C-alpha cells in the first residue's frame, strides 16, 4: 500500500480524497494555485506544493507541475479527482514513465471511452444496448440528412469529442438537420479542435441513469447499483439520487451486467461510471463511460456502504477486490444536492466573493437520517472567478425516498450561506415540487417546470399563516429584549398586546395572540386572519439565523435575516420580507409612498462579477435587438450580453480585460 499520495485537484473533491487517505493511514500532498493559497484542501493535507498562477491552464492543468510536485514530496501515486487531468491518457503515461502510479484506469481505457464514436463501437462489440445511429464519417449536410431520414426523427447531432452540451443539436425535421450539422461541426471545431460529429436517435423525455462499476487488475468486476441523474440544467446535473425511483430489479440487473461487460471489454481497472439514457418503457441505451470518480458518487456510497475512493486506491496499489457482486446490497435511499455559487433569480449567473457566513447543517446520523456534506470551503473562503462554482454536495440518507427528500429539505433550510448568491432557494423549492417527489422526472424537468427561470415560491394560505406566526413570535421577543435594556424607556411594556398586523410581502394579515406569554423557549397560541388557533413553540433567541420549532402540527426550520424595517425569512424555496407591527403603525405605513426603482433602461449593467472578454460595439454604433454587446467571463463560463431592443451606443465605460463588480455600468445608450 502507498504511504503518500498527491491529490491533483482542489476544492471539495480534494478534501474528500484526503479524508479517505487519512482513514487508511496514508499521508497526503495537496497542490494549489495562487487563488487557493488559503484553501481548505491545502490546510487539510499533510503537505502542500504551490504550482502556479490562479488560472487552471497555468496550474492544475499542467502535468509537468504535478509530476514535479510528486518528485519534490516523494509521493508514490496521484489521485486526480474529477475534471482537470482526470481523463487525460497522456498524463497517465507521463506518470508511468516517472514510476508514479495513477489512481484510476489505464490509458487504453481512458482513450477508448474518451471518444464518443469509439466508445460506442466498443459498446456494440460488448453487446451493450446503444442508441440507433450512424457512427461513421459524415461527409456533409446532404449525407447527414440522408442518415437522419433512415434513423427517423427526432435525431441528436453530437460532437465526437464533445462534453458539457457543446457541439450538440436536436433536429426534428429535415431542414433542421442541415443547420444543426453545420452548427455542431463549427462549435465542435472551436471548442475541441475536432469537428467530427455523429448522429443518433433522440430519445424523447429520457431519464439519465448511470451505473457505478468497480474493477481490479485481476479480472474482477462488479456494479454497485444506479444513480438517477435526470435533474439537469443545460446538460449539467443539479440533484441526484440512488437508487432510481424508476428502475425495477430486472432492468437494474440488465444495465449492471452490460456495464460490467463494457468494463471488461476495455480492461477497466478502477471505479468508473457507465451512463445510459432510459425511455419511458425502460429501454436503455449506452451514452458514455466516465473513466473517473463521478461528482455524485456519495449517494452510491451511502446506499451501498462502499467507500469508492478507498477502493480506487486499493485497486491502484494492485490489490484484488474484496467484494463480490453478491455482497452489494442497496440499503435505503440517498439524495444529493449540488450547492453552487450562482444566482437562481438572475438565470443562475455565477456569483463570486467572500463567504461571510458558511454554516452547513451538522453531519452525522440523527435517528434514521444521515447527513453528509462534501465541501471544500469554509467561512471566510474566497469564491473566485477561476474555477467551478460548486460550494458543496449536501447528501441525505434515510430508509425511504420521501424520508430522504424531507431530510434534504430540512438540511437545505438550515444551511447558512452569506456573502455571495447561491442556489439553495432553488434546491429547496425542488424538494417540494410534486413531480420530483413523485419521481415523475426526465432530463427536461427544469426546462419544462421553470421555462421562464426561477422565482421565489409564492406561499399559499396555510404557508402564509406559518410564516406570519413565526414573524409575530420573533417580533414579540425582539420588543421584549429592547424593553429590558438598562436606562431605556419601555414603551411596549405592560400588558401583552393581543392584536398585531403582519406585512408579508405585499399582503397585510391580522395576527391575534390568544394565549401565552413572552419567554424563551416560546410557546404562544395565536390566530392568523381569524383562522384556527396555532400553537407556536421554539427556543429561538434574537440573533439566531435559524428558527427551529413547530407551528401547529408542522415542524419548521426557517432562516431569518434582519433587513430594514423587518425580516427576510426563507423556508422551502419561499423568500419573503416580513414585519409584525401594531395595527395603528400598519395603518400609517399603508399611506407611505412607494419608492420607485431607478431607471436602468439606458444602461448595460454587468450581471455578475467577472472579467470583460470583449466589447462588440463602438460608441455611436446602432445596434439591433439580439446583437451581441459584450462578453463577460466568470467561473469558466463566457456570458454573452445581447441588446434587448434597437439602440445607439453613446458611451463605453469598460474595456476588455477589466474586472467588474455586479451591476457595474459597461456601456450607456442614447
TrEMBL record:
Keywords attached to this entry: ATP-binding, Biotin, Ligase, Lipid degradation, Lipid metabolism, Magnesium, Manganese, Metal-binding, Nucleotide-binding
Domain Biotin carboxylation span(s) in chain numbering: 1-451
SUPFAM superfamilies: Glutathione synthetase ATP-binding domain-like (SSF56059), PreATP-grasp domain (SSF52440), Rudiment single hybrid motif (SSF51246), Single hybrid motif (SSF51230)
Domain (ATP-grasp): residue spans on this chain: 120-317
An example molecular function term from Gene Ontology annotations: ATP binding
Pfam families in alphabetical order: Biotin_carb_C, Biotin_carb_N, Biotin_lipoyl, CPSase_L_D2, PCC_BT
Signal peptide, first to last residue: none
First-level EC class: ligase
Catalytic activity of the protein: propanoyl-CoA + hydrogencarbonate + ATP = (S)-methylmalonyl-CoA + ADP + phosphate + H(+)
E.C. number(s) listed in UniProt: 6.4.1.3
Cofactor: biotin
Record-linked InterPro entries: ATP-grasp (IPR011761), BC-like_N (IPR005481), Biotin_BS (IPR001882), Biotin_carboxylase_complex (IPR050856), Biotin_carboxylation_dom (IPR011764), Biotin_COase_C (IPR005482), Biotin_lipoyl (IPR000089), CPAse_ATP-bd (IPR005479)
GO biological process terms held by the UniProt record: lipid catabolic process
Keyword tRNA processing part of the UniProt annotation: no
Domain Lipoyl-binding residues, every copy: 594-670
Pathway(s) of this molecule: Metabolic intermediate metabolism; propanoyl-CoA degradation; succinyl-CoA from propanoyl-CoA: step 1/3
UniProt cross-references to PANTHER family, sorted A to Z: CARBOXYLASE:PYRUVATE/ACETYL-COA/PROPIONYL-COA CARBOXYLASE (PTHR18866), METHYLCROTONOYL-COA CARBOXYLASE SUBUNIT ALPHA, MITOCHONDRIAL-RELATED (PTHR18866:SF33)
Protein's recorded name: propionyl-CoA carboxylase
Amino acid at each position: 500500500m502507498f504511504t503518500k499520495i498527491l491529490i491533483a485537484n482542489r476544492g471539495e473533491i480534494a478534501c474528500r480524497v484526503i479524508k479517505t487517505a487519512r482513514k487508511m493511514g496514508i499521508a497526503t500532498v495537496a497542490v494549489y494555485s495562487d487563488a487557493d493559497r488559503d484553501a481548505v484542501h491545502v490546510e487539510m493535507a499533510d503537505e502542500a506544493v504551490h504550482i502556479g498562477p490562479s488560472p487552471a491552464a497555468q496550474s492544475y492543468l499542467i502535468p509537468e507541475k504535478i509530476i514535479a510536485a510528486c518528485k519534490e514530496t516523494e509521493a508514490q501515486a496521484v489521485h486526480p479527482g474529477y475534471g482537470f487531468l482526470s481523463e487525460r491518457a497522456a498524463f497517465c503515461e507521463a506518470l508511468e514513465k516517472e514510476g508514479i502510479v495513477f489512481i484510476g484506469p489505464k490509458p487504453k481505457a481512458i482513450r477508448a471511452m474518451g471518444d464518443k464514436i469509439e466508445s460506442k463501437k466498443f459498446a456494440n462489440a460488448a453487446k451493450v444496448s446503444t442508441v440507433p445511429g450512424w457512427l461513421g464519417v459524415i461527409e456533409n449536410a446532404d449525407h447527414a440528412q440522408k442518415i437522419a431520414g433512415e434513423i427517423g426523427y427526432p435525431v441528436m447531432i453530437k460532437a465526437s469529442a464533445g462534453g458539457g452540451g457543446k457541439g450538440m443539436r436536436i433536429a426534428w425535421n429535415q431542414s433542421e438537420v442541415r443547420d444543426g450539422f453545420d452548427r455542431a461541426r463549427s462549435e465542435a471545431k472551436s471548442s475541441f479542435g475536432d469537428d467530427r460529429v455523429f448522429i443518433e436517435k433522440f430519445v424523447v423525455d429520457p431519464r439519465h441513469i448511470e451505473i457505478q462499476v468497480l474493477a481490479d487488475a485481476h479480472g474482477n468486476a462488479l456494479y454497485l447499483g444506479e444513480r438517477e441523474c435526470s435533474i439537469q440544467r443545460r446538460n449539467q446535473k443539479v440533484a441526484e439520487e440512488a437508487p432510481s425511483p424508476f428502475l425495477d430489479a430486472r432492468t437494474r440487473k440488465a444495465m449492471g451486467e452490460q456495464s460490467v461487460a463494457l468494463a471488461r471489454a476495455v480492461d477497466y481497472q478502477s471505479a468508473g461510471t457507465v451512463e445510459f439514457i432510459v425511455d419511458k418503457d425502460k429501454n436503455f441505451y449506452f451514452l458514455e463511460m466516465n473513466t473517473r470518480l463521478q461528482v455524485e458518487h456519495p449517494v452510491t456510497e451511502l446506499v451501498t456502504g462502499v467507500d469508492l475512493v478507498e477502493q480506487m486506491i486499493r485497486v491502484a496499489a494492485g490489490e484484488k477486490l474484496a467484494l463480490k457482486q453478491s455482497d452489494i446490497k442497496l440499503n435505503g435511499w440517498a439524495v444529493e444536492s449540488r450547492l453552487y455559487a450562482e444566482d437562481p433569480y438572475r438565470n443562475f449567473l455565477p456569483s463570486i466573493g467572500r463567504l461571510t457566513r458558511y454554516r452547513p447543517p451538522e453531519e452525522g446520523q440523527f435517528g434514521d437520517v444521515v447527513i453528509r456534506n462534501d465541501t471544500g470551503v469554509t467561512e471566510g473562503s474566497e469564491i473566485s472567478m477561476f474555477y467551478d462554482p460548486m460550494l458543496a454536495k449536501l447528501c441525505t440518507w434515510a430508509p425511504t425516498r420521501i424520508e430522504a427528500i424531507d431530510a434534504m429539505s430540512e438540511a437545505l433550510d438550515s444551511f447558512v450561506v452569506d456573502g455571495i448568491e447561491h442556489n439553495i432557494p432553488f434546491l429547496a423549492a425542488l424538494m417540494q415540487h410534486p413531480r420530483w417527489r413523485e419521481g415523475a422526472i426526465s432530463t427536461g424537468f427544469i426546462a419544462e417546470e421553470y421555462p421562464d427561470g426561477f422565482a421565489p415560491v409564492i406561499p399559499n394560505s396555510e404557508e402564509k399563516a406559518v410564516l406570519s406566526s413565526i414573524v409575530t413570535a420573533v417580533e414579540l421577543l425582539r420588543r421584549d429584549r429592547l424593553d429590558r435594556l438598562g436606562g431605556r424607556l419601555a414603551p411596549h411594556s405592560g400588558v401583552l398586546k393581543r392584536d398585531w398586523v403582519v406585512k408579508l410581502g405585499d399582503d397585510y394579515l391580522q395576527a391575534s395572540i390568544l394565549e401565552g406569554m413572552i419567554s424563551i423557549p416560546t410557546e404562544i397560541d395565536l390566530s392568523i386572519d381569524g383562522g384556527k388557533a396555532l400553537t407556536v413553540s421554539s427556543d429561538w433567541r434574537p440573533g439566531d439565523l435559524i428558527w427551529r420549532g413547530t407551528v401547529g402540527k408542522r415542524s419548521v426550520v426557517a432562516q431569518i435575516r434582519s433587513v430594514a424595517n423587518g425580516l427576510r425569512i426563507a423556508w422551502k424555496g419561499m423568500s419573503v420580507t416580513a414585519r409584525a407591527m401594531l395595527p395603528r403603525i400598519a395603518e400609517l405605513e399603508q399611506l407611505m409612498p412607494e419608492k420607485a426603482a431607478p431607471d436602468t433602461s439606458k444602461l448595460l449593467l454587468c450581471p455578475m462579477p467577472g472579467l470583460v472578454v470583449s466589447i462588440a460595439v463602438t460608441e455611436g454604433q446602432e445596434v439591433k435587438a439580439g446583437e451581441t454587446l459584450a462578453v463577460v467571463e466568470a467561473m469558466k463560463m463566457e456570458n454573452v450580453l445581447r441588446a434587448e431592443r434597437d439602440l445607439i451606443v453613446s458611451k463605453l465605460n469598460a474595456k476588455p480585460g477589466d474586472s467588474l463588480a455586479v451591476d457595474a455600468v459597461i456601456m450607456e445608450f442614447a
